[in-house]
Amino acid sequence: MPDRAVSSTDPQRPLAPAELLELDRRHVWHPYGPMPGRTAPLPVESASGVRLRLAEEFCGRRELVDGMSSWWSAVHGYNHPVLNEAARTQLGRMSHVMFGGLTHEPAVRLARRLVEITPEGLEHVFLADSGSVSVEVAVKMCLQYWRSRGQPDKRRLMTWRGGYHGDTWQPMSVCDPEGGMHGLWSGVLPEQVFAGAPPAGFDAPPEADYVRHLRETLARHAHELAAVVVEPVVQGAGGMRFHSPAYVRALRELCDEYDVLLVLDEIATGFGRTGALFAAEHAGITPDVMCLGKALTGGYLTLAATLCTSRVAEGISRGEVPVLAHGPTFMGNPLAAAVADASVGLLLEGDWAGEVRRVEAGLRAGLSGAEAIPGVREVRVLGAIGVLQLDHEVDMAAATRAAAHEGVWLRPFRDMVYAMPPYVTGDEDLAAVCAALRAAAAEG
């Protein structure tokens, strides 16, 4: 009751940091956390460039360089004038209008741009709420495609181990069922087909035995498979593993041979993170369906997109139910679409490839020799991604404090400490990110 009384008396009264954290602990549920919370989060009062401004000191710091791009989305940094202006301009027109029966310029412009920049053949764009929902939509597209084709028994999905595709129902079913975050739901989720994890190494020569394993797995289940769903080149939250683009090419060829759709989840890898605008470009292929999110709006608003080929769209539209039965309330939100179009434009008009190469070089130099740190098993760098793989479960609290002492915000998980900094991170700040990674690994 005291909380409600305070809010109703003076809802605009600024909250002191201690009060904010107490209210947070009592009422706010954070990702992958208990309720009430046991570890106090850091209160952020503002953000600009690559820095987060804290409401109070943490480890002697009021500002931290963001080494995470806010879960890989804020590729341009924070408070960017171009994106701010896009949001302000659109707010002056309309922040939202339903997409059923109506359309508007921000959504149309964004869809056109996405079709222009994604692999050739992806012609149709479904604008969704979040990355996980975009995977739900992709699965629904594939299931409905086969039902429209008169093959409703093709309703299972194939993937490889080590993946992560989101926290809603169908995406959870293609996350790793053992090492992933969703083992709790084993026996409840749809049972999908899992191949072994792809061999490690972006530059490693492809292993013929593994390609044979993919072929055998797909051939055995082709009659019941609607689609293969994978993250190309980089498996993100499932373990930050890198693999050869050759395996993505192999999947494209096998899916064509056995008449199975291929879905690429580029929510984390899209918009330049791996050094190509989309990771599919490393493999030189076009999927039947592609999922985008995270960096789509530059970290400003939640928005995702599911793109598909004309084959998929026309197949659905010729079916007994000739519509894709999905329509979120905030589908095609004008505010998010306007900012997304501005964000993608900002990326394309700048030297994003040069910036990612510079970040990659800085990560390689700054993490060179980090294998000598006790507990570090492997160092991995690809594009604007740097990973220190540990030989033990990370002590998140200790690792976070160690990074903050270096003036950097990191969010380690499981058995790794990693960074995905904004592309605009300067060389000095990048050196600080590397120092923080090393310190976090040493302490965590």
Query: Counting H and I runs of at least 4 residues, what is the number of helices?
Result: 15
Strand order of the largest sheet: 4-12-11-10-7-5-6
Low-confidence stretches: 1-8
Total domain count = 2
Assign the CATH architecture of the largest domain: 3-Layer(aba) Sandwich
Strand content: 15-25%
Helix content: 25-40%
What average pLDDT do the residues reach?
95
Tell me about the biggest sheet?
7 strands, mixed
CATH C-level class of the largest domain = Alpha Beta
Morphology? globular
**How many beta-strand runs?**
16
The CATH topology of the largest domain is given as Aspartate Aminotransferase, domain 2
Radius of gyration: 22 Å
- Coarse structural class: alpha/beta
Distance between the termini: 40 Å
What is the fourth-level CATH superfamily of the largest domain?
A: Type I PLP-dependent aspartate aminotransferase-like (Major domain)
Function: Catalyzes the transfer of the alpha-amino group from S-adenosyl-L-methionine (SAM) to 7-keto-8-aminopelargonic acid (KAPA) to form 7,8-diaminopelargonic acid (DAPA). It is the only aminotransferase known to utilize SAM as an amino donor.
GO molecular function: adenosylmethionine-8-amino-7-oxononanoate transaminase activity; pyridoxal phosphate binding
Cofactor: pyridoxal 5'-phosphate
Subcellular location: Cytoplasm
